[in-house]
Amino acid sequence: MSTTSQAMLNQGLFEDQEMPSQLGFYSFHPNLSFPQVGCQQSLKAFNIPPSLAADAPSSLTEALLSSAPTKQREDITSHLGGAQLLSLQRSTANLWAWGDVNECLSSKRSIGGDDHLGVSAMKMKKIKARRKVREPRFCFKTMSEVDVLDDGYKWRKYGQKVVKNTQHPRSYYRCTQDNCRVKKRVERLAEDPRMVITTYEGRHIHSPSHDLEESQAPSHLNNFFW
DNA sequence: CGAATTTGACCAGCGC
DNA sequence: GCGCTGGTCAAATTCG
């Protein structure tokens, strides 16, 4: 069964390195099985399966906070309310995200071609590369008893970390598909442990491991921000 | 026994 | 420059 059955709705944050203008928030209508057109396209770009998208997040503020660096998190918390976040797109409070986008744009193609390197050099390069390249990210919050939502892809856990000011550890997963560099982070909200924050980073280069039918797509739209 | 997960160590980036 | 923090690695451990 779907692990998203208890999910609420339906807001989140994404950033797109190729289309910085699409950094922003989306919001779904709670009664729709799938969000409106604009969101659908973006979700598709991120390969977020409709099954998950329909169950996506319930708190815009917290969706943003979950992926913001600590300092900005504090700024956001102290200066903004949820409603204001809807128009946050180019405000100073989300410079962190714009910074990421800019970094992505300026550091394209900085890795690859390890073939002729020795082991240690390769390792070093890997280590250096691991922070240089920022993939587009998409995060949302879902109410769920289980941490890992069934999104149709196969993930391997590669790390777990206790993050500051939270009692729940953050888990790090990588897509198991060869050559697919998509990662996701999963953590529970400190203020409400029933809520799971999932952040996807990167785009899948393949289809989900179990077939999700191609989408269904209602074409009406409403309640769509960015 | 191979695959997946756990966990401590390491490293880079950021803020002070 | 230094300490703190988040992200990743990889050896050890657990699971199926």
From TrEMBL:
Q: Where is the composition biased (Polar residues)?
A: 216-226
Q: Which UniProt keywords apply?
A: DNA-binding, Nucleus, Transcription, Transcription regulation
An example of a Gene Ontology cellular component annotation for this protein is: nucleus
Transport listed as a keyword: no
Q: Does the keyword DNA-binding apply?
A: yes
Region Disordered: start-end pairs: 207-226
**MF annotations from Gene Ontology:** DNA-binding transcription factor activity; sequence-specific DNA binding
What InterPro entries does the database record attribute to this sequence?
Answer: WRKY_dom, WRKY_dom_sf, WRKY_plant
**Where does the record place the WRKY domain?**
144-209
Which Pfam families does the record cross-reference, listed alphabetically?
WRKY
Tell me the compartments it is located in: Nucleus
Protein's recorded name = WRKY domain-containing protein
Upper taxonomic lineage: Eukaryota, Viridiplantae, Streptophyta, Embryophyta, Tracheophyta
